[in-house]
Fold this sequence. Notes:
- There is one protein chain.
- The chain is mainly β.
- About 0% of the residues lie in helices and about 40% in strands.
Amino acid sequence: MLESPKGFPFNESNLYFISLDGKIKWKAEKPDASSLYTRVKLNEDGETLSAYTLGDHSCELDLSTGKLISYTSIQ
């Protein structure tokens, strides 16, 4: 689930995974505390997500945990 970053609290992640029973399985790790996600897509490998933040980061996340695999700053 990707919630709109507009007005979302900076201390929380606006990208999270909800299991079939309706419980939050994970909240995506952020590259820094003030970043919020703006776009996300499932990669072809079916195991990772590509995401972008308002803080100008391009991120790769583990689909099963929400942990950052890597990120880079976009200038």
